[in-house]
Write a structure and sequence with these properties.
By secondary structure, the protein is of the alpha/beta class. It is built from twelve helices and ten strands. The protein has a six-stranded mixed sheet, with helices on both faces. Strands 2-1-4-5 form a four-stranded antiparallel sheet, with helices on one face. Helix 3 crosses helix 4 and helix 4 crosses helix 6. The radius of gyration is 21 Å and the shape is globular.
Length: about 290
């Protein structure tokens, strides 16, 4: 499913002394199967934007189209179907766990779709597996007996069990240790590769969005600053820094090396690509 955002504005507390324009004329097209990184300083409008994408918030003006249909002109039944097609995982989703067992929690969404028992069971097994958990070991446990990272995975599995065409994740690794973060992001990437679904990942990690994303949407004070490939976005080091962001650490390294080795590329943002480029320029020196 493609998403097209056209002239989207959102004003909180409009007409009051507390009026605040959170989104200002956002125009973005996200094609089916793309992996989009959404970055911006706190207060840039990221969370407000993603809540428009499945109709949780209505725009002050402008709209969002899903496969050419205005999502805000749909009736109640169609809006429910939309929210099944566009899965939104909020920050700290484990706070929304409530069932007695992991399996029942993950099954909650599919049950609401009216699926039969066999299909629900298949989806629960599949979703738990997708997030890297062992169904046999964990299905009948209380989610509240699990570690923080495991609870986060169960919460994400509950959204995946709905089999959304578009998966939106708002800082899904917030508060996790590096290992937990890498494992969850790896599972999300594997899911994307296997299902060719559309993924929108909100993150503060330049390394993560650079490594995973096809395109990066950069926001600042409610506006779109950049919407392009990681290589093109991370070329704008000074402009990103001026709005409180940075580029991946390896990009800073490549810029520094280029001062000594002018032939060195400086549009690199992953460790793997940097290693290849350094070896290329320095003649394959194994000690680099």
């Amino acid at each position: 499913m493609s998403l097209e955002i056209k002239h989207l504005d959102h004003i909180y507390s409009q007409g009051s002394p507390f009026e605040f324009k959170a989104l200002k004329d956002i125009n973005v097209t996200i094609e089916k199967g793309e992996f989009i990184g959404l970055i911006g300083h706190t207060g840039s409008g990221k969370s407000t934007l993603i809540q428009h994408l499945n109709g949780l918030i209505k725009p002050t003006s402008g709209t969002v189209y899903l496969d050419g249909r205005d999502i805000f002109e749909q009736n109640k039944k169609e809006m429910i179907q939309l929210r099944h097609a566009i899965g939104l995982v909020f920050q700290y989703p484990e706070a929304q766990l409530f069932e007695e067992t992991v399996a029942r929690d993950v099954a909650f969404g599919p049950k609401n779709l009216g699926l039969d028992a066999d299909e629900i069971d298949l989806r629960v097994h599949s979703a738990i597996d997708m997030v890297g958990l062992d169904y046999d070991l964990i299905a009948e446990k209380s989610p509240f007996e699990l570690s923080g990272g495991q609870m986060r995975r169960v919460a994400i599995a509950g959204v995946l069990a709905m089999e959304p065409d578009v998966l939106i994740l708002d800082e899904p690794t917030a508060g996790l240790d590096p290992r937990g973060r890498d494992e969850i992001l790896s599972q999300i990437k594997k899911l994307h590769d296997a299902k060719n679904n559309t993924v929108i990942l909100v993150s503060h990690s330049m390394e993560d969005v650079g490594r995973l994303s096809d395109k990066i949407l950069v926001m600042y004070q409610g506006e779109t600053v950049f919407y392009d490939t990681p290589a093109h976005v991370f070329k704008h080091v000074e402009q990103l820094e001026s709005i409180g962001l940075a580029v991946p650490q390896v990009t800073y390294l490549m810029h520094a090396l280029k001062r000594t080795f002018p032939e060195m590329r400086d549009d690199i943002f992953t460790v793997e690509a940097a290693r290849e480029e350094i070896n290329r320029v320095l003649g394959g020196n194994k000690h680099v």
